[in-house]
Automatic annotation (TrEMBL):
<dbReference type="GO" id="GO:0005829">
    <property type="term" value="C:cytosol"/>
</dbReference>
<dbReference type="GO" id="GO:0033745">
    <property type="term" value="F:L-methionine-(R)-S-oxide reductase activity"/>
</dbReference>
<feature type="domain" description="GAF">
    <location>
        <begin position="43"/>
        <end position="159"/>
    </location>
</feature>
<comment type="similarity">
    <text>Belongs to the free Met sulfoxide reductase family.</text>
</comment>
<dbReference type="InterPro" id="IPR029016">
    <property type="entry name" value="GAF-like_dom_sf"/>
</dbReference>
<dbReference type="InterPro" id="IPR003018">
    <property type="entry name" value="GAF"/>
</dbReference>
<dbReference type="Pfam" id="PF13185">
    <property type="entry name" value="GAF_2"/>
</dbReference>
<dbReference type="InterPro" id="IPR051330">
    <property type="entry name" value="Phosphatase_reg/MetRdx"/>
</dbReference>
<protein>
    <submittedName>
        <fullName>GAF domain-containing protein</fullName>
    </submittedName>
</protein>
Length: 161
């Protein structure tokens, strides 16, 4: 894959995700390094959608630890029972939050974050290996389209874990 994305000129996220996923596959197919792949996936999502923050929290011991990301500095460590990331990890499910201020136990890494979607990434045994965290500086910015398409990206990551 070239070092640039080819994205449709549309405001419809579904179409952008449809174009992005095969490019992510091509980008990661020949690269064996997990961190490099996660870094490029973060960058591609940020470039494609202009999200406020995109990144990964990796399971290390009994907590989630900041991994590759794009955006302002972030919380470094998250307990499994804290915030949207911890909830997604613990419940083993995608969580859409239209207003982070209304989510019980939300961790405010940035006061500019207004809505969030977090997707668990499973290893080949079915355990949660990490979460993909995407934040917006707009309320109610994510939909089921984002959840479904980000789950496809999480499945791509599982394929090379």
């Amino acid at each position: 894959m070239a070092e640039s994305l080819v994205l449709p000129k549309t405001a419809h996220r579904q179409e952008i995700y449809k174009s992005l996923l095969p490019q992510l596959r091509a980008l990661t197919d020949s690269e064996p390094d997990l961190i490099a792949n996660l870094a490029n996936i973060s960058a591609a999502l940020k470039e494609a959608f202009g999200f406020f923050w995109v990144g990964f929290y990796l399971k290390k011991g009994n907590q989630l630890v900041l991994g590759p990301f794009q955006g302002p500095i972030a919380c470094t460590r998250i307990q499994f029972d804290k915030g949207v990331c911890g909830a997604s990890y613990s419940r083993k499910e995608t969580i859409l939050v239209s207003d982070v201020e209304l989510f019980p136990g939300h961790i405010a890494c940035s006061s500019a974050s207004k809505s969030e979607v977090v997707v668990p990434v499973f290893d080949k045994t079915g355990a949660v290996a990490m979460v993909l965290d995407v934040d917006s500086d707009q309320l109610n910015d994510f939909s089921e389209v984002d959840a479904r398409e980000l789950e496809k990206i999480a499945a791509l990551i599982t394929s090379f874990l």
